[in-house]
# Entry
Amino acid sequence: MTGPAVPQRLAAPEPGWTDTVDVVVIGSGVAGLTAALKARELGSVLVVTKDVVASGSTQWAQGGIAAALHPEDSPEEHLQDTLVAGAGLSDPEAVRVLVTEGPDAVRDLIELGARFDTMADGEISLGREGGHHRNRIAHAGGDATGAEIERALVAAVKRAKDIRLIEHALVLDLLTAADGAIAGVTLHVMGEGQLDGVGAIRTRVVILASGGLGQLYAATTNPSVSTGDGMALALRAGAKVRDLEFVQFHPTVLWLGKSAKGQQPLVSEAVRGEGAFLVDHAGKRFMQGRHELADLAPRDIVAKAIMRQMLATGKDHVYLDARHFGDEKWRVRFPTILASCRSHGIDPVRELIPVAPACHYSSGGVWTDLNGRTSVPGLYACGEVACTGVHGANRLASNSLLEGLVFARRIAAHLADGLPARREPVVDRRTAGLVDADAVPEVQRAMTVGAGVIRSAAGLSEAGAVIGKLIEQPAGEPGTPGWEATNLVTVASALIAAATAREESRGAHWREDHPDRDDLHWSGSLDLTLPAVAEQAVPRTTFVPRESEENDRHG
# Structure
């Protein structure tokens, strides 16, 4: 199946300046900064980020970071919980890498200066979230774990005088050599600092750590910078993208009314881990009997249950009941969520919290092997932009920060064997394209209705038709809004193609016209590529059975 045609490269002015480094890291969250800190031992490193260095998705992570740190826990138990959440599509070897290397990665964070919450005896305080059978979630500042991890990493990067930073810059496209390998990047610096306008960076390696695609949808927990840029530029460079149909909708996002758009406040799964529970408008608990873990079931199970309850009752949200926590527990354990709720006129100490699912995390992304290599030589990926095989059809709670840490470290370890030779970029003869920046609200509406929590062939087709018309409309002058809009429609087209092709319901992908999981026909992944043509390209999907999928990653 296919989605709408998309531009092969972004329309942009020719580079007005050039620079040269050994490694370019795109993104400044946990994955990007960890990669930069490790790669600086191998050569010159440049970190490029769209906003200020601390503005990515990492800072918004409330729940924590999962790792088998308690003596009674084990990597094997963490592995089993991750595989169950992944609904049959996680790569067991990739998960084993995550859970066995994860505890040391967390300890490295602590040595770097990250301060996790501790108990009276000084040991790390561990909580529980959906899908976990053990308390293994390390948190900081109660519910400000991402912000603390980002603080520690940013401080370490700023102490490292051999890491250069370019803030307020959008990477446009990858420069490739005659053999398709990485030769550099083009980027636009938005008038902040010594560099300005479009330029080119010649490099031996690019590490993509650019985050997710949350701004594809009208309501998301992702910041405004999450416009799918990394996935889009990887596709345009010929990289393979995998499992893009598995978009995780967080079940408990603060419901602010029908007109609310953009980034919405998250109510962490850790709140349910501490004993909060879901109820409908009649006060009825509806998660018991749906899963052995009830309110702490994996996110796809809870999100679907909420959607079913909303459909059954005709309501547009449900409630989270945590009134029994009392004032002190709210202030100590969840100060960020407490302040967020109260800023919107809701007092969770005394009131039910209105919640509904919203786009949260992309379980799929740019395909990588166990060392972070993509299908394009010299291009690596880690964090949410990547598909490492860990998450499968549905990410287990609090595995995202850990994945960013572990696989960023593995990329640097692999590059320690030797950076690739510097290559000469070839002139890109493909037709450039641009989408009108004003198209973004229509993209978000179409994706929310047709490719959101509940999908069908008809809904996906309608969403694809909207995207196709937006691509065909005349665009304005090149600039950041238009480039972001083009990236969004590129990723939307690929996602629609994947979601249309997968005719089953599994994990975070729910097809109402194919409501059952179908292991006979769909036990495997969908790869997406853009064919190398001069004009607009249509995403191409290829089904990869489980055995072949594991072989291509491990080989």
